[in-house]
From TrEMBL:
Name of the protein this chain belongs to: Hydrogenase expression protein HypE
Cofactor(s) this protein requires: [4Fe-4S] cluster
Domain Cytochrome-c3 hydrogenase C-terminal: 229-306
Protein localization: Cell envelope
SUPFAM superfamilies the record matches: HydA/Nqo6-like
Classification via PANTHER family: HYDROGENASE SMALL SUBUNIT, NIFE / NIFESE HYDROGENASE SMALL SUBUNIT FAMILY MEMBER
Organism: Streptomyces thermoviolaceus subsp. thermoviolaceus
Keywords, in A-Z order: 4Fe-4S, Iron, Iron-sulfur, Metal-binding, Oxidoreductase, Signal
Pfam families: NiFe_hyd_SSU_C (PF14720), Oxidored_q6 (PF01058)
InterPro entries for the chain: Cytochrome-c3_hydrogenase_C, NADH_UbQ_OxRdtase-like_20kDa, NiFe-Hase_small_C_sf, NiFe_Hase_small_N_sf, NiFe_hydrogenase_ssu
């Protein structure tokens, strides 16, 4: 057999193995980034699917999942909790998905030692092990790497102008050309915090891919799941028709479009108005709150001050006023016409509907 034939056979065997997928997989969730752990808390509210259903094997077709998350862990904590993480760092745990929650600080800007955030201690020296230490060792070995929440995806609050930590998103830290063992880039699921089903839906797709029964999840150029972040808040907002009619709210008690009181919905990629927040209920503009762009890479700097009219908002709302005035008037006329009963609705002796069986002789 020639070298080329041997190589081709090896590649085909490898591809067949990849399609076969895994029967079992580990999820190592580190929330020791600069964060509030809000993404973990939010994730527990998902119902489609629930994290409990995934871990208990109640979702058909998924591999058996072992989840290691400090909020949901049944371990005793401390070194007992760190066992799978240390094993993965040594290359003794595979395959696993690495989930990072929270911004990644820049350790290189600390000149005299110290650390921004840590996860466990070095067993030899007793010194804290930084988040960066863990990422450096786990990410290259991970089957897939997921950044959960805006802090982990793009830096978020901790990476805003003037911060002393040099915080950044996970893709900034690893490099946007990073590829995991499954040849996947960092998968970004932004949100402050995440919408529960957005994360669980992405994780479920990823697990089906791990099982060999689905392709990789499609991502946009900012590594977000396309099917979740391909539309704007405005496109799914119940208040969008008021914008078209140039009918804008002047305060937060109004049911009308909130653009002039600070809403960034027309330019923000997010599906919360459509999906709601929990069990299909809630979502910022659905309950009278403005969109502040918390799923966006430039959050929060580009969207502050939050309560001010967005940049360009005055121009767009001014341009739409004459159009909106005409549309409102025309719709009003049509509304009056269709709000009347037809004249043939009466109890008189004559039929006035225009009924004319012309096909009869």
């Amino acid at each position: 057999m020639s070298v080329d034939s041997t190589l081709e056979a090896t590649q085909e065997a490898s591809a067949a193995e990849d399609r076969a997928g895994f029967d079992e997989i580990h999820i190592l969730w580190i929330s020791e980034g600069m964060s509030c752990d809000g993404d973990t808390v939010s994730m527990t509210a998902s119902g489609q699917p629930a994290i409990e259903d995934v871990v208990q094997g109640l979702v058909p077709g998924l591999p058996k999942v072992h989840l290691y998350n400090k909020v949901l862990s049944p371990s005793l904590g401390g070194e007992d909790y760190l066992v799978p993480f240390r094993a993965a760092a040594r290359g003794e745990l595979s395959p696993f998905v690495l989930v990072i929650e929270g911004s990644v600080p820049n350790q290189n800007i600390i000149e005299d030692g110290g650390y921004w955030t840590s996860f466990g201690n070095d067993p030899d020296t007793g010194e804290p092990l930084t988040l960066n230490w863990w990422i450096d060792r786990l990410a290259p070995k991970a089957w897939a790497v997921v950044a959960v929440g805006t802090c982990a995806t793009y830096g978020g609050i901790h990476a805003m102008a003037g911060n002393p930590t040099g915080c950044m998103g996970l893709a900034d830290y690893l490099g946007w050309d990073f590829r995991s063992q499954a040849a996947l880039p960092v998968i970004n699921v932004p949100g402050c915090p995440i919408q529960p089903e957005n994360f669980m839906e992405t994780l479920t797709w990823l697990l089906y891919h791990a099982a060999g029964s689905a392709p990789p999840p499609p991502l946009d150029d900012m590594l977000r799941p396309q099917w979740l972040f391909g539309k704007t808040v405005h496109e799914g907002c119940d208040r969008a028709a008021y914008y078209e009619q140039a009918d804008f709210a002047k305060d937060y008690n109004s049911p009308k479009c909130l653009v002039k009181v600070g809403c960034w919905g027309p330019v923000v990629n997010c599906n919360v108005p459509k999906r709601g927040w929990m069990a299909g209920i809630g979502g910022c503009p659905n309950v009278g709150g403005i969109c502040i762009g918390c799923t966006m890479p430039s959050f929060p700097d580009a969207f502050m001050p939050f309560m001010d009219e967005p940049t360009g908002g005055s121009v767009s709302t001014t341009l739409i006023k004459p159009y909106g005035a005409v549309i409102r008037r025309l719709r009003g006329i049509t509304s009056m016409a269709v709000n009347k009963e037809p004249k043939w609705h009466h109890n008189g002796p004559e039929l006035t509907t225009g009924y004319d069986p012309h096909w009869r002789p």
